Known about the structure:
CATH architecture of the largest domain: Beta Barrel
Mean pLDDT: 87
CATH class of the largest domain: Mainly Beta
Radius of gyration: 39 Å
Structural class: alpha+beta
Number of domains: 8
Shape: globular
Number of helices: 18
Amino acid sequence: MWTYRVQMLPQALCALVLLCATGAAQVSEFETKRIVGIQFSPAQTLDPHDLAEALPLKTGEPLRAEDVARAIDGLFATGRFEDIVVEAELSGSGVIVRFVTEAAWFIGGITVEGDVGAPPNRGQITSTAQLNLGAPFREEDLKRSVQSIRALLTSNGFYQAEVEPELERDNEAQQVFVTLKIKEHKRARYGMPVISGETGLSDGTILRATGWRIPIIHWWRQVTDARTRKGVQGVLTKYQKQDRLTARVRLDKLDYEPSRRRVHPHLSITPGPKVKIKAIEAKVSKRVLRRYVPVFQERSVDNDLLVEGRRNLRDYFQSKGYYDVDIDFRRLPPEKDVEIIEYAISKGARQKLVNVSIVGNRYFRTSDLRERMFMRPSSFNLRHGRYSEAFRRKDEENIANLYRANGFRDVQVRSIVERDYRGKERHVSVTVQITEGPQWIVDSLTVQGIKQLKEPEVTAHLTSVAGQPFAEVNLAADRNEILTYYFTQGFPDATLQASWAPAGPPHHVKVQYSINERDRKYVRDVITTGLSTTRQKLVDKHITMAPGDPLSPIEQNEIQKRFYDLGIFARVDTAIQNPDGDTERKYVLYNFEEANRYNIAAGVGAQVARFGTPSSSSLSSPAGSTGFSPLISLNVSRLNFLGLGHTVTARGVYSSLEKRGSLSYFAPRFRNVEGRNITVTLQYDKSLNVRTFASQRVEGSVQLSQQFSKSLTGLFRFSYRRVSVGSVIIPVLLIPQLLQPVRIGMLSANIAQDRRDDAGDPHRGIYNTADIGVAGRFFGSQRGFTRALLRNATYHRLTSSTVLARQTQFGVIIPFSAPRGLTQQQSIPLPERFFGGGADSLRAFPYNQAGPRDVGAPLVPGGPSSQATGFPLGGNALFFNNVELRFPFLGENIQGVLFHDMGNVFATVGRISFRFHQRDLQDFDYMAHAVGFGIRYRTPIGPIRVDLAYSLNPPSFQGFKGTPAELLQCNPNAPNPPAFCTPTTQNVSHFQFFFSIGQTF
Length: 1001
């Protein structure tokens, strides 16, 4: 018997070692003998297909030394072995070859345990470990990781932290799971810093600039790495505010005092001279100099930065209309700790760019070219136009690149600047001259090297095909298209070379793509780790890779994205195990870190608007009055409920206008269909935002949502609710049938089509919604009606920065089977009727003040009419139309809006009228119009909106100036009614003011 041991040796050396180790006699003893058995110890975990590829030895064939060397080399190339020992022993007339192997290990996941007080958080600790998922695991790497984590903890004040790694091994997949157990102990605090250098500032000033000690109470803050860096930057900022732009602040070390858990930073400071940058011969604000001269950002002064500042200032002045500006600078010798840099600026006469014309273009429309240009002629918001030499060069480059991308390889673009255009002094015109040249065309396309895939699938979406324009950018696009397709089909190492040559006709080319497919990779299995509360079946149904599928990195990342979309994982890492190993079948790994299961969000706010609530003291403002309502909200969510990825959420809102509480259960991907979700909700709502009454709603609902496409979504909902009214102050509404609580069972569907470019601030596109519902006894409802609300909004970009937006809404409620004693209109409970008016619907009215009002209807059929109050009653139909012209107003972040709103809420659909004027004080079925001006200030959470509207034809009506108690004393048929029973004519104000967040529509 002979034994041959090799650790990671190349093939040639393996063969040499074999010959030397066995000796000539031993080799001759086993050489050429028939192999009667090949064994592995321990049992082999390599995929059978990969093992067959790596092992040239076959049972029944003669044993040769070179085959053994090749076998060892092939097994090592798989990357799954650390050590290989080859043994051979005689067995009858043959030989048994035994491979004794030591498996390589790979990182299967990292878990951080312990009470980790951020900073650093668990993600930072995991990243610092640099133990990449799927990579080979080595003990020395683990030691470096522990050292790096200890350094991270130390930099964040945990000088006594303990880091103990624990390993768990999975023999079948050769994975190692690393658990980092961390005991942080107490975090250190800062102590008095040690300051060296000619600082020019007192130690107290420097200490305050660091922020390491709390002012007034003088408590030292806890040490964190971010706070340390911020403190150093704070000292540097202090010097920069004194114009010491070359100041240097260096943190030399952090001295730790264990007995007191204090850290003393050592700061080395070089303040440098004060640098004064000023403009002469022209007035320039310090803010402009700081913005355009980069020495302030780079905190360094050299000629390159000063030259860049000169160029920036020239572009700035040219953009302001000073096209002939001349700028130079000079550095004066330092005197008395001050270095002065002067920019001499000769602005010249201010001019106006009045014309930008494009000539010579035949292939592209002029409007298409203008969209890509920075230069703009003067307009309402650009008084002097937009021009600079940099803009002019950039426009030439953009136009030329557009032509080259469409086959015009010889295009030439130049611009001519004409002063005193058409004899008008200081008027400037720029003419962009385009010489297109011939268009180059692809004559033929040849694709070589496709062996394992179907050529039509590979070439289905190529750009450089016969008859299409030829451009290098298209070759690059085709290369990405082909390689992306190969990657999705399991060819991670595929390459492509593109070449072209002239064809027969002039300006025609032949394009050739040469593909080297290389080896195809397949999925051996998908391994998931790190799950604690999440059920495995939830993860499995989102994995669309199966053993034997092509190994697609794109599909692998799509699966990772779907896991993130569930919202229950804080981190999802994915990798290919042993990525550099020469194996055809690979393990795909997913390691999860589950998110915190509870989320709590609280908010405090207020509403300031023209609204009101039912009042026991006065009925004098039926159209509402300016009010203030504080608001408190609280949301508590339980994620990943029962490990199914479902979410339970409790929400609450409390204000003087509304008290609302809800409990919802959200189940995503119902029946494992993408985009299909189920929501079950229980809700209580008490609303006071309509002055006529207070509504109370208790509701349970089930909603199915389905995303049919990227732009089309459907919501299908069944709700069962109990609605009631209270605080009613209109006598006609005190009829018992109207006051009784009503149960409403409704089945509804909502279809939304959203093709806007930006839902928060759209510039083009279309938005349609249709909400249709039916309530009836067949659903357990005490009222029967059909409700429909349709909406259509469109957005048209008139110029690059001007948008025409319009919206139309139409709604109708059609009652049926009215209860005995109620009319069809009265059968619709007040909370179910349409109410309109306000910032988001019709700005001719305050909130919920549009439509029919109380005009003193009979309390009983045939009886006398009650006293009119003028309070809104809602209606069974609505029509709103809004038009806005949105344009730049001041700078880039402030937008102006001119708007026109028209519409109203109507008693019934048959009473919708486009009349402009109100017929009498009892007529509210006409179109109210409002025009106005608004301002939108762009913020990260959406535009802040201020609108001032003027109502052209607000309604007038009979109102009441007394109290509810006095109202009940008024008998319209009494011979001598009290003076307070005399009706007063009131009206909705012509002027309305709204403040909110987000566009109107």
